[in-house]
Design goal:
Number of helices: 10
Strand content: 5-15%
Number of strands: 14
Radius of gyration: 23 Å
Shape: globular
Structural class: alpha+beta
Helix content: 25-40%
Largest sheet: 4 strands, antiparallel
Low-confidence stretches: 343-348
Mean pLDDT: 94
Length: about 400
């Protein structure tokens, strides 16, 4: 693995990177505590996000000025080096994981110049808050231009990988997967970002491209239903390795060959927020049955938040017990830790993904922008039954059915 995704190296990364036989890391993205400067940085006339990540990010930017300095550029260059070194070998796996185009939307000057608006004379804006849009239309467009510049930088570096595959004649025997983990609201639904809002189409429907030399299908789109957990299943299948018995993902062969999906429906979302279902043309967002969004727990053997360990006072306030094993924990018991009603990533900021939509059904054919929820009790009943079926298949914790008010569907 070659990455510039700094969260893997925080406590919440839970040693993910050490699962690889080798790994490389390039520093400086977002609020990576990389460069040690005591003096406060100059923030200029910026607007947007103010959080604990801002100070280290603006210190890092002093050392990231031209294209060769950018972590994304270094990350991809290291991947190309791996390809050069191992071009004559078989049965290798390379993961080039770039943090971009994640915010802040900070790109090299030549890419920002491509989208510069000479008429804009407002403040610098490349890092929107996780909040409702309060900026002017001109400022929103400026932030979108900064995002477009960073996307162009990503396209450029993806092109370098594709050119290397051309140069080495790798297309005949090399699987290529290009995907992202989520999308981002750039003012849609009158909001920025993710997490504090429902997992709308712009967030949940992630880009995905695949080249499988066994089938040679290129330049075509697919409508079949697929999900991120299909990716490891397809990789194992490509290398001729068996799929674990508890793996819910499925190889993508059917979709690639003939647009035939292995899934009738899939679940998606975020822990403690909506549980979402997509089936046919419908997306169903199921919110909590009670205002306190309880009961819910974290199940783990590594009690950490995203960037730090649980503090002693947190563990005292939320005493942990040992849970019985789940099917996916291979017979091992985990800590069962009560989860607060609201997730607070930093002091003073409360994130509530139910503020815009509590529970809703959307017809994605008639309403692709998810602006008009459907009121159809019979349809909701059908979707609830499908949601419970998939939750059972995934050995969902028992309290999730209570949190979502789905106990009546457990028969």
């Amino acid at each position: 693995m070659i990455s510039d995704h700094q969260h893997y190296w925080e406590d919440g990364g839970c040693t993910y990177h050490t699962r690889y036989s080798s790994w490389d890391y390039y520093r400086g993205q977002e609020g990576d505590p990389w460069k040690a400067e005591v003096a406060e940085p100059d923030y200029g006339d910026r607007i947007g996000r103010n959080c604990y990540l801002l100070r280290p990010d603006y210190i890092n930017r002093k050392y990231i000025k031209v294209k060769k300095d950018f972590p994304q550029e270094k990350c991809v260059s290291s991947g190309l080096e791996f390809m050069d070194v191992n071009k004559d070998e078989d049965n290798w796996f390379l993961q080039i994981e770039c943090f971009d185009p994640h915010e802040p939307f900070y790109a090299p000057p030549e890419f920002r110049e491509m989208f510069r608006d000479d008429n804009y004379d407002g403040p610098h804006f490349d890092w929107p808050d996780y909040a409702a849009v309060t900026e002017t239309p001109e400022q929103v467009e400026q932030c979108r231009r900064e995002y477009a510049a960073l996307m162009a930088f990503c396209d450029y570096n993806l092109g370098r990988v594709l050119d290397k595959m051309d140069e080495m004649d790798m297309w005949k025997d090399t699987l290529l997967i290009v995907n992202t983990d989520h999308g981002f609201l750039l003012g849609e639904h009158e909001n920025w970002a993710k997490v504090h809002v429902p997992y709308y189409e712009e967030i949940a429907h992630a880009p995905f491209f695949i080249w499988d030399p066994r089938y040679g299908v290129k330049g075509e789109r697919r409508e079949g239903l697929a999900t991120t957990i299909d990716i490891p299943a397809h990789i194992l299948n490509f290398f001729g390795l068996p799929l674990p018995s508890d793996m819910q993902g499925a190889p993508l062969d059917g979709i690639i060959r003939e647009d035939k999906s292995e899934h009738e429906a899939i679940l998606f979302g975020m822990h403690g927020a909506h549980v979402n279902l997509v089936k046919g043309k419908y997306v169903y967002m199921r919110g909590p049955a009670n205002p306190d969004n309880q009961p819910k727990f974290n199940y783990t053997l590594m009690p950490t938040r995203m960037e730090r360990r649980y503090q002693l006072d947190q563990l005292e306030e939320m005493p942990a017990t040992l849970a019985e094993p789940f099917t996916f924990t291979k017979g091992i018991r985990t800590l069962k830790i009560p989860c607060p009603s609201r997730y607070e990533p930093q002091k003073g900021q409360v994130i509530n993904p139910f503020a815009l939509v509590d529970t809703a059904i959307f017809d994605m054919e008639k309403d692709p922008h998810q602006l008009h929820p459907i009121d159809d009790p019979a349809l909701e009943d059908e979707l609830c039954r499908e949601m419970v079926r998939l939750m059972k298949l995934n050995d969902s914790p028992a309290e999730q059915y209570v949190r979502l008010g789905l106990e009546a569907y457990l028969d």
